[in-house]
Amino acid sequence: MDSFTTIIIFIIALCCIFLLLKYVSFYRAKKFRQKLNSKFGEKPSRDNDFASVSSYWNEKMSHKDMLNYIDGITWDDLEMNKVFDRINTCNSSVGEEYLYSMLHEPEMNINALTQRETLMEYLSANPEIRLDLQVILSKIGRENYNGLSSFCYDVNSKKLKRPYIYTVLACLPLLFTALLLLKSPVIILCLILSIITNGVVYYYISKRIVRGISAMRYFSAVLWGAGKIIAACENIDNTIIENLKLSYNVFKKLGGSLSGIAQQRLSDIDFLIEYIRIIFLTNIRSYNKLLDAIEKNNDKFRLLFTCVGEVDALISTLSLRQSLPFYSLPVFYMSNELNIKDIYHPLLDNPIPNTVDITKSSLISGSNASGKSTFIKSVAINGIMAQTLHTCTAKLYQTRPALIMTSMAVRDNITLGESYFITEIKSLKRILKKIPDIFCICIIDEILRGTNTIERIAASASVLNYVSELDCMCIAATHDIELTSMLAVQYDNYHFSEQITQNGISFDYIIKNGPSRTKNAIKLLEHMGFDDSIIKSAQDLVQAFEESKTWKL
Question: What is the pTM of this model?
Fold first, then answer.
């Protein structure tokens, strides 16, 4: 076989290998797209690391004064971490972090929600583009504790002090290399010492900024993804995409500097290049220059972060919508009313929808386990979802834009030495303090349950009467039937009820007009098999109290 034939065979073999690799790459990409598409609209099953997911929100809260946000008490009362778990199918960490922050910030500006809906409508009508974006966001990737959000509000604290020192140190090896022409042993020694010094400096400084370097690597991926998202959405007129273009144009020139920090080096030539970078402290000097650029354009950096995150969060919302039995877009108006049709709790697998028109502050009474708490949580969660995801688990949710505040799952605060009642009144106090600043929908479950009956009813009636005179809407669930008559003028009344038969107690979980007229605590004791003597004693005590208004055991 002559050399020419050998070369031809070699070239053909290379082409075959190249085509095979291209086919494998194409096949993997196709399978990945199919996997993403098949999972779209399914309930997520991932475990979220909330210490990481909350990074951007925590940074924002620590550096910005905010009036309109879902506070920690409301978040915990409504088990919003579980709601987040139900919603989150984001393909990138920046998307997860933005979604978590977005759920904390209900929009009072309806135009912002309109822009979100416009983008979701476009992606819903163009599923191939939506899938393209999912692939792009997946390539950005989910990387817990990536550190990027820490550059959104406090860049200066991450910068290395006295950066000129690293420039001087980087110049010394060049200087001594040039002086080698003098053929002096001292120069050779100085060159060796400068290289060793820079290696030591690189090692210790790199350890100090390891999280910053990790953040820059992730920023490189986000910046790349931003460019791809803009190209994929070039045909849509949307503020979110326009803001992404604006911020991307500021930082796209940093791509070269980021690539030096971001890329992992594995080949022999890459290791050689890395040694050169160590000698001349290239990554350290590039790191500080990048932070200078981010600090100079910090508002655009935040805009880039939030726009990429918002695109991911809205795709997650589209997946949520497809996974629900039914949903609707919220309707906003300025009247202090809440019109609801077939509302349900988004975490329930087999929910029972409820319909009600609440035209003013209302009391929800009813028996234990009849559905009061689930209903008011459904109202509150939908209020948050309406003004963040522009999505409601109801056939109609018509409301005035409002901040949702709750006082529900109150517990003793042992670490502060506070009783249940002290914790409860502090929870109520924060609501009363917020109402004058912004329109609120206040959701209260069993007001002031932590004290004796007489003072509870008196104090509860006074607090609720005070709230009814403010510009807000209050929905309070209560066992205290006395409140329904005491506040009959100030509050509308609704109730949940049960049916008691010889076979036990059953609930329909349907809200009804008017106050509750039934009590079931003793019946529940009987149904659960308590001793007959306990049941008889309890019944006698109730009868004696109703006759004399005093307790006699």
Answer: 0.86
